[in-house]
Structure formats: C-alpha cells, structure tokens
Specification:
Blueprint (H helix, E strand, L loop, with lengths): L12 H4 L11 E2 L11 E5 L14 H18 L4 E10 L9 E11 L2 E10 L2 E12 L2
C-alpha cells in the first residue's frame, strides 16, 4: 500500500528529484505479516549518478536525507505531519550507484509531541547505513 503524502510535502527535493530515478520515490507501508514487519515503511530505489559523491558511490548527505525522508513517510503513514528535530546517521558500507537499495523506517516510540524513529539502508543484502531521528509534530 502506498503511503499518503500531504499536499504541502509534494515539492520535497529528496522525494521528487532525480537522485534515484526519473520519478518520485514511492514509499509503501509494510504488511504486518512480512518478515521485516518491525520496519513499517520502505522503498526500493536505484541511485543515479546525480546522487554520486566519490566515483560510483552515493554521497553521504544524500544518504542521510534519504533516511530523513523514509522516517518522515513512516509518520505520514500514521497521519502525522512533523519536522526533524535531530538526526544521526551511521555509515557501515558504501552504497553503489546504479544498484537497487532498500530503505526502511520504523516508529520506535513517542513522548508528548516528540516521535523517535529509526531507519536502515541495505544494498545486496548488506546493511550500508542506519539512522536514528527525533521529529516534533507540526502545529
């Protein structure tokens, strides 16, 4: 099932630019019955040369922005509009340009109007990057 995107998010530079393909990223809700059910939102994409930093490798800032976007879409799936408060990313292995990757995000917990989320990016079955973030509900 495709995740609903609020009208005021339709011009997001990460989701709509050609970093990953000629079309916007399509995040989908993960079924409770899947083996990766702890991750609630995912997208499979192929990074293009527009996302390249070093030769053949995805640029770290774009990797971090992809984590941020995945976690935000996880909140959208729950009808929550929020803004990033903090974001920490970790890089485990380089992400290759031109090869499919999967980004997954999940809601860990919430406290008052702060939401704690995490995400992972894998490529060829290998964990390449992970992130943790806090979001604050938009007023």
């Amino acid at each position: 099932m495709k995740v609903f995107i609020p009208h005021n998010h339709r011009r997001c530079q990460v989701c709509s630019q050609g970093f990953f393909s000629d079309s916007p990223i399509c995040f989908e809700a993960v079924s409770e019955h899947e083996t990766l059910a702890k991750y609630k939102t995912r997208a499979k994409i192929v990074p293009t040369d527009k996302a390249e930093g070093y030769n053949g490798i995805m640029q770290g800032g774009i990797v971090t922005a992809l984590h941020d976007s995945a976690m935000l879409h996880c909140l959208f799936q729950n009808s929550i509009t929020a803004m990033t408060v903090s974001l920490t990313s970790r890089f485990h292995h380089p992400i290759s340009i031109g090869q499919e990757l999967e980004v997954r995000a999940r809601w860990v917990k919430s406290r008052r109007n702060i939401y704690f989320l995490e995400s992972q990016i894998t490529q060829c079955g290998k964990l390449c990057s992970s992130a943790q973030s806090q979001f604050m509900a938009s007023q």
